[in-house]
Amino acid sequence: MRLHTAAAILTIDLNALVANWRLLSAQVAPARCAAVVKANAYGLGANRVVRALLGAGCREFFVALVDEGIELREAIGQDWPSDARLHVLHGPMPGAEQDCLAHGLVPVLNSLSQIENWQALAQRSGRPLPAAIQVDTGMARLGLSAQSFAKLLDRPDALAGILPTLLVSHLVSAEDPSAPINELQLQRFEAMRAHLPHVQACLANSSGVFLGPAYHFDLVRPGAALYGVAPIIGQSNPMRRVVRILGRMIQWRDVAAGEAVGYNETWIAPRPSRIATVSVGYADGYLRSASNRACLRFDGIALRVVGRVSMDTVTVDVTAVDPDRLTPGALFDVLDDVQDINALAQQAGTNAYEILTSLGTRYRRHYLHDL
Length: 371
Ligand SMILES: Cc1ncc(COP(=O)(O)O)c(C=O)c1O
Fold this sequence. Notes:
Blueprint: E1 8-13, H1 14-28, E2 32-33, E3 35-36, H2 38-42, H3 46-56, E4 60-63, H4 66-76, E5 85-88, H5 97-102, E6 106-109, H6 112-125, E7 129-134, H7 146-154, E8 162-168, H8 180-193, E9 201-202, H9 206-209, E10 219-220, E11 243-255, E12 260-261, E13 267-268, E14 273-278, E15 295-298, E16 301-304, E17 314-317, E18 331-335, H10 341-348, H11 352-357, E19 364-368
Helix pairs in contact: 1-3
The structure holds pyridoxal-5'-phosphate.
């Protein structure tokens, strides 16, 4: 890897990813564990992530968009196993059904019109076609409402032309086990499922896995936890860290007490201070809302971000570091096991999903994989 020109290095530990998938699989057995790899596997690289998980035995994958599915199938090419399935959570836009079929994608059908369009394609194809059906149990985002589901079931040919792969719904607040909506959604899902008892069921996302076996059904659908996101609020994180970022220092300077650092003078040095400029910014997903709140680390010392995060740089207070060690190009830990995506998310006032999916394309990406 050409390291000397890299300004920042994003390391993706595929061994940790696979260990996380295995942990979740063991937690839900005999139910199966899929992998949600939408948004380029939450920014980490769908091709590499899917290949690692295929190698570990994962056979069920979910993306959001037909275009994501096509790109992924093309990237994996001949290595896509015949027993693996790639579901598309949004289902096809009108007119995209044939593309879905041609690329071996299984749509998740969310509305009566998506179901009708898929049935029409099955009729034209002269054979039933696999598809999942999503029902809405509380998210009010995607899936058939209770009324639309009842309307569907009233039709004598309700699922004609469809080989139903899964009945799907999505949890609203699974990361908070005390939220009453979890149990309510479970009851609604079970009631709807009773009408299609022979169809396999899939409800839980990462956090849902930790709500207990009642939520596991036949298949669980984690994304975030695979990538190291803590699944339950306020509890220690059982997942291994997958992402590490090293940023390189460009230069440092001494500032006098009372001098400002960064755009709009949001930090004024309370004492003479040494400030290092590290080559990571909000264009790299180091969110501007982390300004004056987050920390980087150097040699295990936590160093506060001072002043506004800029597009390409972040400034940190390195007064505690021996200046002889601050050589240009020195590596700072932007994300490590201590200051991880979960901690940064908290400091930046967002969730770890947004941190991951904002990481951007400028990092030198380095995949650890020795399985
Ligand atoms: C429908 C659906 N299922 C599963 C997931 C995976 O959720 P998580 O990343 O919380 O495991 C998502 C992610 O947003 C989703 O939208």
